[in-house]
Amino acid sequence: MIKDANVSNNPGPYNVFFGTGGAIVCDNSTSLIERCIIKGNKALVMTKDTLGGVGAGLSFASSDVTLNDTLIEGNEALYVSAIDVGPDSNVTINRCTIAENKALGVQHHGTYAKGDVAGIGIAIGSEVIMDDVSISNNQAADEYAAITNGEH
What we know:
By secondary structure, the protein is an all-beta fold. Helix content is 0%, strand content 47%. The protein is globular. The N and C termini lie far apart (29 Å).
């Protein structure tokens, strides 16, 4: 359980090889995140051999997560910036604001990392239920600014 926390301006990522997570990563867990500020976190990995960056704000894999009354703003990643809902996850989002997040995309050592999703990326086999959620002013360099479900 994470309540009333300010998780901001972390250079991330939690997993350096894949560039997963800048602020909070839930992996194979049941979590409640409530009344938090998740702002200005980064998931950017650019080495000679690796390009990675998903879930700068929040990253979930094989998890059941409830997210209430939380601001997710100004996070930056190469691929999926605000919330990355990975495989086998069930996420409920209530009364949250997801704003001004950026999926940057980048050309690096001859490889292009496509800036897919600035808001919420939902993997196949996962479920997201939302109630009273504001999603605004998110920017994806290449594809989806708000939400994508499936392969991203």
